[in-house]
């Protein structure tokens, strides 16, 4: 069977299973899972960057950009259809990343991480000063619709959309990571100089991964902005970006589905610890992260994902001479 068709077939099957699960779980769990999908989408983009040896602490910029652009469209233009809002949010996140990429894609290591975080914090500072869009308080987002119909008050409709988007994004990323371009990105993590010798541009590879991560972040920001019914500058704050990095590291880059599971675990720990242990949920997540780093250094997803090739660069054939 064609690997691409198999990937999308498994994604469709998984989406149907989780939609069916949504019919029997309580409304609070639907909301938690919807938020987890939003964070998972951002973390999935971070996984793509990690595969290329890049770590961004500024994904909140694109997460916030998607949420703000789609939220303002809903408020000012009266567009509340989720398909339109998600598309606009994804495009907004990708475009912002495309504008930023010429500046950041040339850097590596701590310089890349700190520069992305600085840009995110600049956006946070600017948004808090613009009173026309709510300043530091942000603004409310109207209730969403789908093809002219209001989504159910229980949150099931929004949850079902989130599941479909997560399945589609995971399938697309899996196909991309296994493609020639995806293997080049992984090879760049191992040996950038070798990639340049083979005729590929590390700058172009980094730019593509960065734009993809920005689009996924904008998609996640739109979803969570609608789910919460409110958008504010904190979407761009460095701690928000840090949570997404935490989720991506927990999931690892061996699997495209693990980030959604770790995002759900993070949300559940935050919810229950906030209720029963108000000041200790960060400690519990920290202990969980330490255990994963010690016993599963490639992330939770390595438990079921196929072992990665030792050197992706070996998969790239020498150009004919």
TrEMBL record:
It is found in: Cell membrane. InterPro entries: ABC_transp_permease, LivM-like. It is a multi-pass membrane protein. The chain crosses the membrane at residues 7-30, 36-54, 83-104, 111-136, 156-177, 244-269, 281-300. Its main location: membrane. Keywords: Cell membrane, Membrane, Transmembrane, Transmembrane helix. It comes from the Bacteria. This is Branched-chain amino acid ABC transporter permease. It comes from Shinella yambaruensis.
